[in-house]
Design a protein that fits this description.
Layout (H helix, E strand, L loop, with lengths): L10 H7 L10 E4 L2 E4 L10 H5 L2 E9 L2 E2 L2 H14 L11 H12 L4 E8 L16 E7 L6 H6 L2
Antiparallel strand pairs: 1-2, 1-6, 3-4, 3-5, 5-6
Length: about 160
């Protein structure tokens, strides 16, 4: 008999690996810094990130509420955004407060935080013009659980 996909993983991890991450859906999302319930968060279909993939993102971890390598993540986000025609935040370090608030609102000891910058709405068609009205979408959710055997047998 053929082996089931992901048979080497515990069932919960196999579900997560196949997209069943329902238990990690963020409850609070921020759009342009403003809190929005996750079921109310939307982005326009005319957003250039949606239309043309003109977006940059960074995902980082917090450990005991402290963002890991936050400056490197924010510098890379600004660099990426600028190189694809998105005006980066003037004060990338100002996002640290948003990251900390997202973590606190997640209610978890550790979090995964994602920040996405899109080019926002702009003219239809490809453009090399730097757009000055980007959108920022960010959220936090708990990190995936590690299998118990990782602690005794290693990864």
């Amino acid at each position: 008999a053929p082996r089931a996909a992901n048979a080497r993983f515990p069932r919960r991890l196999a579900r997560e690996h196949q997209g069943g991450q329902v238990d990690r859906v963020p409850t609070v999302v921020r759009i342009d810094g403003e809190p929005v319930a996750s079921d109310q968060a939307t982005v326009s279909v005319f957003d250039r990130g949606f239309l043309y993939g003109q977006a940059a993102f960074e995902t980082l971890r917090t450990y005991d509420g402290v963002p890991f390598a936050v400056e490197a993540h924010l510098e890379r986000l600004a660099y990426s955004a600028e190189h694809i025609g998105i005006q980066p935040p003037e004060q990338p370090r100002g996002l640290v407060g948003e990251i900390l608030e997202l973590h606190r609102s997640s209610g978890h000891r550790d979090s995964v935080v994602r920040i996405t910058l899109t080019a926002g709405r702009g003219p239809l068609g490809l453009s090399s013009t730097m757009l000055a009205s980007p959108r920022r979408i960010s959220w936090a959710y708990p990190p995936p659980a590690k299998p118990a055997h990782w602690w005794t047998e290693g990864a």
